[in-house]
Design a protein that fits this description.
By secondary structure, the protein is of the alpha/beta class. It has ten helices and eleven strands. The mean pLDDT is 95.
Length: 311
């Protein structure tokens, strides 16, 4: 099972809604959504689609970043008002065991996921009090191989254990991707079961760091992953070439899209995300930076699903 971790910004949620509407992810993908806005409009749209289409997701109720970050009750109250079984509760653990256990009791929570770093000590009583709670059924740990004692402890609990990796190599400037050739992106989908994990998790083709807003870029990049040698997932960064100013973003998109479309045609790569990219290119239509990001995220999730369906 694949657990992409995405912030609940507009185009991340549009990505997940489209995939659910296409019945593309059910049974293979369970998103983890980290809300960053106080308002719930986009979350509600996603919830309605998920409920209709039978797609579950975890919702982080104490997000690390955003307008309502920290150990509060804002998203717990939101979750309490929703029908159960669609959004499941997830907590970021940061030496906040009492907060988590109090929330589990006060809100009568079950099927709880704990997301934590690999720096947590398996002998930490604050953590073990949470880990052994009957309501806690899943753990998502960043790069768990760096803490073997924690890894062994969680395996012994016999609960759902998911590894979280951060394979996307963020660059200082978009134009820096121009000199980066195709390279391996991830192979966790190949080995997670063999290593005893229930599932694997990443940030799709986005950086793990939270970046609020953005500015007009000097370069436009389309990040596309694909199955390659021995079913590894590789990535290519199709980058515009006229990157000396922020002018003519539409033209920059055309440059990047031309490279991507030619590569997809040459290598017979196709899914609904790639078809949308080709359509924008053929119609000479610039869809906006948010849609470009959506296409990259959606393609990556579909690449993972294609492997999981056919392995």
């Amino acid at each position: 099972m694949y657990y992409p971790l995405l912030r609940s910004r507009q185009f991340e949620l549009i990505t997940l809604r489209e995939l659910a509407n296409e019945n593309a992810t059910q049974g293979f993908v369970m998103p983890i959504i980290e809300p960053v806005k106080e308002t719930h409009n986009n979350l509600n749209l996603a919830f309605d689609v998920f409920e209709k289409m039978g797609q579950k997701a975890y919702l982080i109720v104490n997000p690390e970043n955003g307008e309502m970050s920290g150990d509060g009750t804002h998203y717990l109250d939101y979750l309490e008002k929703k029908p159960t079984g669609v959004f499941l509760p997830a907590f970021r653990y940061r030496l906040n065991g009492k907060y988590i256990l109090d929330a589990i009791q006060d809100y009568n929570l079950n099927e709880v996921m704990i997301i934590c770093s690999n720096e947590v000590g398996s002998d930490n009583s604050d953590f073990t009090s949470v880990a052994t709670s009957a309501s806690v059924t899943a753990f998502n740990v960043g790069d768990p191989d760096r803490n073997r004692s924690l890894k062994r402890y969680l395996f012994k609990l016999g609960k759902i254990f998911i590894r979280l990796d951060d394979p996307f190599e963020r660059q200082t400037r978009n134009s820096d991707f121009l000199s980066i050739g195709a390279h391996p992106f991830t192979e966790e989908h190949l080995y997670y079961k063999e290593e005893g994990f229930y599932g694997f998790s990443d940030y799709t083709v986005l950086p793990s760091e939270y970046i609020e807003g953005g500015s007009t870029p000097r370069a436009v990049v389309i990040h596309l992953t694909y199955l390659f040698k021995d079913k590894q997932i590789w990535i290519r960064h199709f980058t515009s070439t006229t990157n000396d100013s922020i002018a003519n973003v539409q033209g920059k998109f055309a440059e990047a899209a031309e490279k991507a479309v030619k590569y997809c045609h040459k290598n017979n790569l196709s899914n609904t995300a790639i078809k949308e990219l080709i359509s924008h290119y053929d119609e000479q239509h610039y869809p906006g930076l948010g849609t470009i990001k959506k296409i990259s995220m959606k393609n990556h999730i579909l690449v993972v699903v294609d492997y999981l369906r056919n392995k």
